[in-house]
Amino acid sequence: PRPRTIFSGIQPTGIPHLGNYLGALRNWVDLQNGASPDDTLLFSIVGMHALTMPQDPKRLFRERREMMATLLAIGLDPHRCTIFHQDQVKQHAELAWYLMCQTPFGKLGRMTTWKSKLATARNSADESSIDETQLALGLFAYPVLQAADILLYRSTHVPVGEDQVQHLELSRDVADLFNRTYRKRFFPLPQHIITPTKRILSLRDPTSKMSKSAPDVNSRILLTDTPAQISSKIRKAVTDAERTISYDPTNRPGVSNLLSILSGLSSDPGSTPAKVAEELNGALARQAEQGGKELPSGKYLKDAVADVCVEALRPIQHELERVKMDQAYLAEMEEKGRAKAEEAAEANMQAVRRMMGV
Ligand code: ADP
Ligand code: NA
User: Fold this and answer.
1) In the Enzyme Commission scheme, what number(s) does this protein have (predicted)?
2) pLDDT of amino acid 163
3) What digits encode the pLDDT tens for the residues 34-74?
4) Closest to 139 measured CA to CA, from 118, 125, 161, 170
């Protein structure tokens, strides 16, 4: 197979939750571990994207460093991947501008993420919240910066969640337009690698996704939550009163979401939420047969989920503590990542500038 260049990014705002981990970060580690030695892997912390919304500088600075620590703690290997801050490689901004000069305005207006941000701003009755006229130009142009992030390294593959598929299509369009304009197949049209894990839902409202912006802190599990916090949040998760456990996302979204979490955290690559449900049901039935105390299925499921989450996060948290103690090491990794990314970016930008006549 042809060598791949795999690129992905995450914003440095806030501690990642279980949805980010199962939907994105853990997949990066799996890609790394399954990659061929000829593949190039780039994982970036996209501070420039965070700046499309108001940020407190001190907090942003701290969170950028913490995200670097997190990426190392989950198992990304700086010898194998380029792990870097996008905002330290200026070629991202340069290429974004060039691509913005070619991207039709109307195309960006059709992006669903923009439309939903716009609708929220328009419909908000809250006087203090941001109104439509104050939404930043950068927020509108965000998908072009994302295209620049990807194309800057001439990436061929991008692991993304379903919510990002439209943006990746835009990246392909932007690449194609550039190639046609300058009559050269310079940028590969990046393909997506869809994350195998199901979308993780809010523990408290399993009709919406687990998100760092939801006001209810009990709706999400953070990678840094203590065992007590994890148990408490899972105990408060919405389930139902049925006696058995089954995977039925339509009729039993809360139960099914917990099964997705269990299956996602399983070390068995063949695990599915439906198989997990079957196993748990078997155990539940055996317990009843043996005359043991009959637990309600929801309680039984929650106990299992809490145990698995605590065990899965323990080594990550341990590693995170260790890495964060060594700020000099983190600074060194950041510098190493920056230098490596910049070298590749500059080589490609020299070709881009030449093609464009600047
Ligand atoms: P949030 O929506 O919490 O602000 P981001 O938009 O920063 O999270 O997403 C970072 C990455 O995590 C993206 O690749 C996104 O697809 C993934 N992701 C976010 N929330 C979830 C979720 N609930 N389930 C699965 N993946 C998710
Ligand atoms: Na989001």
Assistant:
1) 6.1.1.2
2) 77
3) 999 999 999 999 999 999 999 999 999 999 999 999 999 99
4) 118
Cα–ligand 1 centroid distance for 68 (angstroms): 17
Paired with 83 in beta bridges are 43
Widest CA span in the chain: 81
Which ligand is closest in space to the CA of residue 164? 1
Taking the CA of 13 as reference, the closest ligand is 1
pLDDT recorded at residue 162: 76
**Burial (Cβ within 10 Å: 0-12, 13-18, ≥19) of residue 246:** middle
- 293 among known catalytic residues: no
**Catalytic member of 198, 209, 233, 302:** 209
The alpha carbon of 354 and the centre of ligand 1 are apart by a number of angstroms equal to 37
Which CATH architecture best describes the domain 217-320?
A: Orthogonal Bundle (1.10)
Give 281 Cα–ligand 2 centroid separation in angstroms. 34
Q: pLDDT at position 158, please?
A: 97
pTM over 0.90: yes
Start and end residues for every CATH 3.40.50.620 domain found in the chain: 5-200+327-356
Coil/strand/helix, residue 126: coil
Query: What lines the ligand 1 site, CB under 6 Å?
Result: 10-11, 19-20, 23-24, 160-161, 163-164, 199-200, 209-213
Residue 295: per-residue pLDDT = 72
Out of 107, 212, 275, 340, the active site residue is 212
Give residue 71's pLDDT. 98
- Residue 223 C-alpha to ligand 2 middle, in angstroms? 17
Closest-approaching ligand to the CA atom of 113: 2
Query: 203 near 236, Cβ under 8 Å?
Result: yes
CA quadruple 210, 215, 219, 222: dihedral, nearest 10? 80
Sign of torsion over alpha carbons 125, 129, 134, 138: negative
Report pLDDT for 64: 98
Q: Has 209 been annotated as catalytic?
A: yes
236: annotated active-site residue: no
